[in-house]
Amino acid sequence: MPNLRLVIANKNYSSWSMRPWVLLRQAGIEFEEILVPFDTEAWAGRIPTLTPTGQVPVLWIDDEPVWDSLAIAEAVAELFPAAGLWPADARARRRARSIAAEMHGGFAELRKRMPMNIAADLRGHGRTPEVERNIERIVAIWTECREAATGGPLLFGHFTIADAMYAPVVTRFHTYGVSLPPVAAAYAEAVRVLPSVRAWTEAALAEDAFVAHDEPYRTAPR
Q1: Structure confidence at residue 174 (pLDDT)
Q2: Between the chain's N and C termini, which has fewer beta carbons within 10 Å?
């Protein structure tokens, strides 16, 4: 099996880092985590050696970098087909790819007005008409997928790349106190209690201790 190293930034703030981390962790795939805090000497010194774009996340597969969260997810799905990271049904798989790509390329106002901050309580902040439209679209996606799903509480029943792509949105809705209708609320809670999401959240709440040291942070391979 290939050696996997995932380069990420602060778990409290980096929504793009969260997506492939949750994907790998929830799928039970072993990897080494390299966390380099934003806006630090460690970031300035190490990131040019760890990522070809100067951004995170990057997944190193042996000596080959793969960057961008959705590209990483596709690479992982190819490497580990038995993990079932896309739905097996072709129609559901097309829908899953479409909504993952929509999350990847859309919802700019939500990202701008409601940046990820797991440790904060920002209820009532960030609500603009365009944000409300973004929220309505996300709720529609979740509701449509859940109404068609069988075999579990996630978008396509079992855990897929689509859930990893929307996991940071679940944390945003919690931070900003977004009230959700029943189907979307049940989905958000199902994501929040995933072991991978709980582990990320707990680490986000505890990371100040090592971020203050201004050094890259490593974990043992998963």
Answers
A1: 97
A2: N
Residue 87 has pLDDT above 90, yes or no: yes
| Residue (of 71, 1, 8, 51) closest to 29 by Cα position | 1
Task: Give me the sheet containing 32-35, strands edge to edge.
Answer: 64-67, 58-61, 4-8, 32-35, 217-218
pLDDT-based confidence at residue 183 (cuts at 50, 70, 90): very high
- pLDDT at position 220, please? 45
Residue 89 CB: number of other CB atoms within 10 A? Answer: 12
Residue ranges of domains in the chain, CATH in brackets: 4-82+205-218 (3.40.30.10), 84-198 (1.20.1050.10)
Residue in 6, 4, 9 with CA at minimum distance from that of residue 204: 9
* CA gap 160, 165 in Å, rounded: 9
Show Cβ contacts of residue 93 under 8 Å, excluding neighbours closer than 6 positions: 86, 87
- State the pairing for strand pair 64-67/217-218: unpaired
